[in-house]
Structures are given as C-alpha cells and as structure tokens.
Amino acid sequence: MKIITQILGLVLFLGLLSACSQKSTTKSSQKKSTAVATSSIEKVIKTEEEWKELLTPEQFRVARGHGTERAFTGKYWDNKEEGTYSCVACGLPLFASETKYKSGTGWPSFYEPVEEEHVGEDRDNSFGMVRVEVHCNRCDSHLGHVFPDGPRPTGLRYCINSASLNFIPQAETAEKTDS
Ligand SMILES: [Zn+2]
Q: What distance in Å separates the CA atoms of residue 34 and residue 122, rounded to the nearest whole number?
C-alpha cells in the first residue's frame, strides 16, 4: 500500500513538472517572435574574411575587433567640416556634423545620432569599468561608447572612433542631390 502511494506521488510530481516546462517553452517562443517584429533595420552580415578585405587593418581592428584608436590620432577628432558621418563598414548614416562638438578628448564626439535606431547599445564591463558600448545597428560594427556627461540638449557624449566612421562632406551630398 505504501509503495502504491509513493508511485502515485511520483506520477503526480512528474506530471506537474512537465506541465511547468511546457508553459515556459510557450512563453520563450512568444518572446522570440516579438523581437523579430520590432527590428526594422535589415542586418548586413559578412564573414570576418569579407570585412578584412573591405576595411583597412586599423578600421578592422577597431570596428570588428572592439578596438580603440589612440586619442588625437584619428582622422576626424578635429574635423570641423559640415556633413554626415556614416558607418565605415556598411555606410549607414550615424552622426551629423551639427551634433558634433569639441569635447577635448581626442575622439570625435556627438550629442546624438542621426536616427536613434541606427545606433545600438550594449553593456561593456571591460577594463574594470561599466560603460555603454555603441555599435552600428545594421552591421554591428563597434563605434565607441556613450557617456552621460555631454552637452545640451541630450546630455549625452557619443565618444566615437574615427576608424569606425566615413565622413561625407555636405558639398558632395548637395552635388549628388542636384544632378
Ligand atoms: Zn554598419
């Protein structure tokens, strides 16, 4: 009699267990489909070899290898021309010269991206610091970091590597629109 009770108990327990795991499976699959629906940018995916062919060694090291260029050595930290800064790897427009400001850090600094959804954010715990890493939302190339000590109106400082950017001067953009 005792054994039967034990077996019954086990069966009941297993039944509950499988009911629980079934429930959680349904939940996670629902989550997945929502994430796909909210992303409107079509990703650019290439192999490491393809990126290597497309980029200079320095661009590849910074943009694809999460590297950082040395301060005051990049192409654009002191660039005052008007135009658009796009992703060096996939060409997605990321920052406009109107939002670039002198931060004194030696890296191009902006207070906001051209489109919020063009720039993605990730938590970065490397080098014993907690920082927010920023990347191109189309090809996932590393851009730099965003800090909460920027100027108005956003109060943000997007500290970006020149090596991750390609600058397109305003004049060129205007010529293209005219023709
Ligand atoms: Zn990109």
A: 20
* Protein residues placing their CB within 5 Å of the ion ligand 1: 87, 89-90, 92, 136, 138-139, 141
- Residue 113 Cα to ligand 1 midpoint, Å, equals 13
Residues with a catalytic annotation lie at 159
Ligand 1 centroid–CA 142 distance in Å is 9
**What's the token pair of residue 63?**
């943009």
Q: Which of 106, 126, 117 lies closest to 66, judged by CA?
A: 126
Amino acid identity of residue 110, one-letter, is: F
Residues 6+ apart with CB under 8 A from 112: 95, 99, 154, 156, 158
C-alpha to C-alpha distance for 100 and 105, rounded to whole angstroms = 13
CA of 56 to the centre of ligand 1 (A): 15
Helix (H, G, I), strand (E, B) or coil at 33: helix
Task: For 111-145, write each residue's pLDDT tens digit.
Answer: 999 999 999 999 999 999 999 999 999 999 999 99
Whole-model pTM over 0.85: no
Cβ-contact 136, 120 below 8 angstroms = yes
Q: Which of 164, 179, 170, 177 is nearest to 74 (CA)?
A: 164
Local structure of 162: helix, strand or coil: helix
